């Protein structure tokens, strides 16, 4: 699973590099045909890590509930995000990947409560959740890449 954790971190590093030159307006623009923007996608990956990883294992969240609600699955951008907050999300984007690795290695996910995703995939333990996160991170990396070309 260490490889999966490193891949999640590497994917996030790629996304940070891919979006490094974007303006505040570009981060917030919802391209035609999309229902969200680049900043929402980045926040969503962190919120998903919390909801399908930490909460399922009964581990306290590392982000405020308002953050998770703003970026949870099914939500949409709710207002313009200033660059200061975008920078904070980018910091959390990487630090949360590091925290995930540390917490996994220390066995914090041993009490994972399984569930079935909206795609019908059963995630019975943290290892299965991490495999799903790999797919999910890649999916949103592709979305961000497409959006970047449109903004």
Describe this structure in words.
This protein has 151 residues and is mostly helical. It has a single domain, classed as Four Helix Bundle (Hemerythrin (Met), subunit A) (Up-down Bundle). It has six helices and two strands; from the N terminus they run αααααββα. The chain has a two-stranded antiparallel sheet with strand order 1-2. Strand 1 and strand 2 form a beta hairpin. Helix 1 packs antiparallel against helix 5, helix 1 runs parallel beside helix 6 and helix 3 runs parallel beside helix 5. The longest helix has 25 residues. It is globular and about 40 Å long. The termini are far apart. 26% of the residues are buried. The mean pLDDT is 96.
Any key phrases for this structure?
single chain; mainly alpha; Four Helix Bundle (Hemerythrin (Met), subunit A); 6 helices
* Overall pLDDT: 96
CATH topology: Four Helix Bundle (Hemerythrin (Met), subunit A)
CATH superfamily (homologous) name: dinb family like domain
Give the strand content. under 5%
- pLDDT below 50 for ≥5 consecutive residues: which ranges? none
* N-to-C series of helices and strands: HHHHHEEH
Write the layout of secondary structure elements.
Blueprint: H1 2-18, H2 24-28, H3 38-54, H4 65-71, H5 83-105, E1 115-116, E2 122-123, H6 126-150
Antiparallel strand pairs: 1-2
Concise description?
Helix content is 62%, strand content 3%.
């Amino acid at each position: 699973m260490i490889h999966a954790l490193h891949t999640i971190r590497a994917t996030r590093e790629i996304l940070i590099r891919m979006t490094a030159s974007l303006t505040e307006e570009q981060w917030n623009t919802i391209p035609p045909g999309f229902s969200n923007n680049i900043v929402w996608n980045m926040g969503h990956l962190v919120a998903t890590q919390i909801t399908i990883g930490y909460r399922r294992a009964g581990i306290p969240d590392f982000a405020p509930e308002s953050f998770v609600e703003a970026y949870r699955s099914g939500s949409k951008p709710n207002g313009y995000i200033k660059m200061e907050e975008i920078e904070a999300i980018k910091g959390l984007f990487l630090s949360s990947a590091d925290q995930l690795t540390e917490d996994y290695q220390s066995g914090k996910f041993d009490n994972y409560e399984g569930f079935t995703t909206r795609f019908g995939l059963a995630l019975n333990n943290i290892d299965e959740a991490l495999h799903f996160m790999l797919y999910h991170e890649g999916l949103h990396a592709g979305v961000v890449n497409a959006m970047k070309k449109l903004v």
